[in-house]
Amino acid sequence: MPDNIACRIAGLDWDSIRLSLDEHGYAKLPPMLESSQCEELIGGYGEEQLYRSTINMARYRFGLGEYKYYRAPLPDVIREMREAFYPPLADIANSWLKRLDKETLYPDSLSGFLEQCRREEQTRPTPLILKYEAGGYNCLHQDVYGSVFFPFQVVFALNQREQDYTGGEFLLVEQRPRAQSRGHVLTLERGEGLIFPTTHRPVSGSRGYYKTTLRHGVSTVTTGTRYSLGLVFHDAK
Ligand SMILES: O=C(O)CCC(=O)C(=O)O
Ligand SMILES: [Fe+2]
């Protein structure tokens, strides 16, 4: 694997990622983070100076577990991934807007998009690390922190399922208009990533595209401890 994460991201098969996003709404990525990078991120969990806030999920009835939002400046690997994932995803996001007859909205660089966030007073970084112990889970939700939001997020598994923990599958539920919801269970090996929609996606129907609503979460971790890294592109108010 080349050691530069930005090159690794640029070198992904973006045609097949686009096809997968268009067809299923999500795209699984090959291993992106090396074990040492996963270990370093997990190892930083106790270093409070890295984070701007810690959320006890039970307190807000978000689930059972804990997560921490990174403080600026973000750790290099997170900043580089956020910058490198943004442009190809913005292109796909704009094509989705077109399908729904909305004007093209997402600038082609992360800095341009963060400027849009800043204008709405959304200046606090949102990449986060999550930790769930046995019994932990994450209720179905959407991560929107203001009027500006990016339509894709990326999540990475930081440790190994069936080895470090069991259960704790990633859940994606799609609510179709006037129809029942459909659920997807996605499993990620350590270092692997998943791109998924923040709130909606266009689905092709008999009279053009319509919009479905998506929520994501994590099923109960049955044993061990599960760590994940969430890459959210919009900053928070
Ligand atoms: O722990 C997970 O896999 C879910 C993470 C999540 O909710 C997010 O990245 O927004
Ligand atoms: Fe989330």
TrEMBL record:
<dbReference type="GO" id="GO:0016491">
    <property type="term" value="F:oxidoreductase activity"/>
</dbReference>
<protein>
    <submittedName>
        <fullName>2OG-Fe(II) oxygenase</fullName>
    </submittedName>
</protein>
<dbReference type="GO" id="GO:0046872">
    <property type="term" value="F:metal ion binding"/>
</dbReference>
<dbReference type="InterPro" id="IPR005123">
    <property type="entry name" value="Oxoglu/Fe-dep_dioxygenase_dom"/>
</dbReference>
<feature type="domain" description="Fe2OG dioxygenase">
    <location>
        <begin position="123"/>
        <end position="236"/>
    </location>
</feature>
<keyword id="KW-0560">Oxidoreductase</keyword>
<keyword id="KW-0408">Iron</keyword>
<dbReference type="Pfam" id="PF09859">
    <property type="entry name" value="Oxygenase-NA"/>
</dbReference>
<comment type="similarity">
    <text>Belongs to the iron/ascorbate-dependent oxidoreductase family.</text>
</comment>
<keyword id="KW-0479">Metal-binding</keyword>
<dbReference type="InterPro" id="IPR018655">
    <property type="entry name" value="DUF2086"/>
</dbReference>
